[in-house]
Write a structure and sequence with these properties.
The structure holds 2 protein chains of 2 kinds. Chain A has helices at residues 14-22, 45-57, 68-73, 75-80, 104-110; strands at residues 7-12, 36-38, 61-67, 87-91. By secondary structure, chain A is of the alpha/beta class. Chain B is mainly alpha-helical. Classes of the chains: A alpha/beta, B mainly alpha. Chain A: One of its GO terms (cellular component) is proton-transporting V-type ATPase, V1 domain.
Chain lengths: 119, 220
Amino acid sequence: MAGRGKLIAVIGDEDTCTGFLLGGVGELNKNRKPNFLVVEKDTSITEIEETFKSFLARNDIGIILINQFIAEMIRHAIDGHVQSIPAVLEIPSKEHPYDASKDSILRRAKGMFSADDFR
Amino acid sequence: MGLSELEECSLSLDGKLLRFMEQLESLEEKQAALNSLIEQGWFSTSKARYSMGNKQVSALQYASEIEPLVCVHTRTLDNGEVEFCTERVTQSTETGTNVKSIEEIGPQEEGVRRRNKPKNVVAEKKGNDEASSVAAPEVTPVKRSEQNPQQDPLRWFGILVPQALKQAQSSFKQVIELSAEIATLQTAVLNSREELKSCMKDKHILQKKTSAARVEQTVK
């Protein structure tokens, strides 16, 4: 049963959310709280950040998928998350292709070759 | 003595670096595959929208009750890495119950037939004793009106949806599986990075020690 495992949360534009919900990741819990956020033009950054933080705080979420252009808006919050669970994955969106140089994880991995590591 | 330690440290550092590079390469490959699958999914969604109508396949059509059909199991390995694997709730169990409910129609009809013949109850009872004893455990109230909460999300968008939407669904299903693999790789990369950093520091300390020993030797 799906209840025992963890959920996959999505923060993305309408097409991304629709796609992943088609895939079967969506959930509306007993408190009618969804595990996804459809980001539209009028969605504020505060709302996105609060949702992201609420997903981080939920212990039933294992992976958070977020469009990279949205991740850019709340980069400080994403960089501040260093735990393995939930894992944060940056994915492309229709209008913004994926850029590996912006990815939080890859930037952290690149960071190991910085001068600080040799001190 | 110090030199051999340094050599050992260098060798293990080389091994870790190679492993780290392999992980990064694999991560990049999987990211590329994920991106192309997502693109494919969007393309199929757009095709479905083209045939269904502009306003179709949107957030307005999400069901009021949404149950997850896929979940992620996490497992922390000994070396600190976390493994993510997806598990899909198969629809086969639901179809199984449906088949059962169809089979259970038989005994129910028999019950109705018996009600029309109240005079021959005793005789019939004797005759059907064996049959009823077999059928008895099967006579259970069938919950026909029970809604299936785990319905296929495709149904949100209509009963007869275009093939393109089904293709989009299968693309996104693959994306979900791939995203679990990427999440595993990400934690592995970060873990390797930490190992490398500590190994580099050790090597640095050893290098300092050996160079100090050499200086001492040359002075003597």
